[in-house]
Specification:
The protein is an alpha/beta fold. It is built from 15 helices and 16 strands. Helix content is 43%, strand content 16%. The strands form five sheets. The protein has a five-stranded parallel sheet, sandwiched between helices. A four-stranded antiparallel sheet has the order 6-7-8-9. α10 runs antiparallel to α13 (384-397). It is globular, with a radius of gyration of 26 Å. The chain starts with a strand and ends with a strand. Bound molecules: adenosine monophosphate and zinc ion. Adenosine monophosphate binds next to α1 and β10.
Length: 464
Amino acid sequence: MELKLYNSLTKKLDTVKPLNNTVNYYFCGPTVYWYQHIGNMRAFFVMDSVRRAVKYLGYNINHVMNITDVGHMTSDADEGEDKMEVASKREHKTPEEIAKFYWDLCYKDMKALNIETPEHICPATSVIPEIINFIQDILDNGYGYITEKGVYYDTSKYPNYGRLSGMNQNDKLFGARIDVDEEKRNPADFVLWVIAKDNHIQKWASPWGVGYPGWHIECSTIGNKFLGEHIDIHGGGIEHKTVHHENEIAQNYAKCGHEVVDIWFHLEHLMFEGGKMSKSKGNIYTLSSLIEKGYSPLDLRLFFLSAHYSKPQNFTFSALDSAKESLNNLKKLLLKHKNGENSIKKDDILSLKQKFIENIADNVNSPLALAVMWDALKTYPFSKDIYELVLDFDKFLGLRLDEVKDEITLTNNVPKEIIELAEERKNVRIKKDYATSDILRDKINSLGYIILDRPNNEYEITKK
Ligand code: AMP
Ligand code: ZN
């Protein structure tokens, strides 16, 4: 079945139409100057869901993600300081050390969330010569100009500028940027290459002087390097729509003379206590802080799956608790199906699979896809057929359901102190000291957990 995605450019559902059955896919990656919080992780989870949807529907994929390790200013509209330089001064490390440290952490979290690794992950600093060539092409084609401060894109040369965000040259946002460089011809013009001040750390030689690239040119260049002049799907956070992606479109057109991206999709934010979860607001949680509180990364993944990417999702601990409980229930039901003796009519299995596919194909509707999975698990008698079907669904869901084992002691989401008590209890039970065993059970109980005994001194712990 064909994949349809909501295209922010045409403002309707468009069908993905790859050449040779391979979907060229670009997603704007992290700026590696600080910890990535679970809001950022929602973005990468959505990136992964679209990737998995493409594959589930039978296409091949060529997926590129950049790493921004230079040129992203503290404001997306080229103002303020370079985020990498700020971090470098803050932590007394080189920008390279900063980038490596925070990228390694980000990648670890992505793996823990079972986010598949894109075919190409490319740091901006690894493609400086390509960026310089791209800028040169923009200049040669008459879409750029040089000032004392660097090289700028002339937005008046691109008639469709503002189409993605629905703005025009007179809009407020564009006007707000007028003071940045008096030599700018139009308020919306944006920087392609910045001439570095003497104390700037990250800088490279270029035909226009020693400096560094703007943030927007990095994504156009990396997309062009790995995917060429045709990109089927380009995604990113909703805040990228008005500036960053508008600028990418303009740059691509200036170089190639035609539109490069077919479908632009944007995900809405993870919210916390009424606002966007963001580093600047300080209202953030990281994945490791949730793990310390006793949640597993897959609890968070199930929580993410339960909302559509095009809607903001509100983060609360009670919602995360529900996801955690659901995951435990899911695993239990799955095991019952695994050991089930019934057989299910082929037509029923086919119709469940068809519904699942339809939901994915319809703008990657993960909440409805999840509902089909629950329907399969709950309404049919225990059967290996359902077990196999749900494992197939998991190619999209990514909940590592194939790793759920019969003999599991369900402790992976439980705080360390509870597991220690449970292990102590297991040892006293082996010694047949049931009096102490009961005391320990009560203690676990009073801390909010229930321990259930399984054969061979194994146990299962669930939250009350
Ligand atoms: P950054 O490292 O700031 O460039 O962000 C990496 C990705 O996370 C971008 O695609 C952002 O749009 C996205 N992002 C940042 N904050 C949130 C949030 N609260 N919810 C969802 N995505 C976010
Ligand atoms: Zn980008």
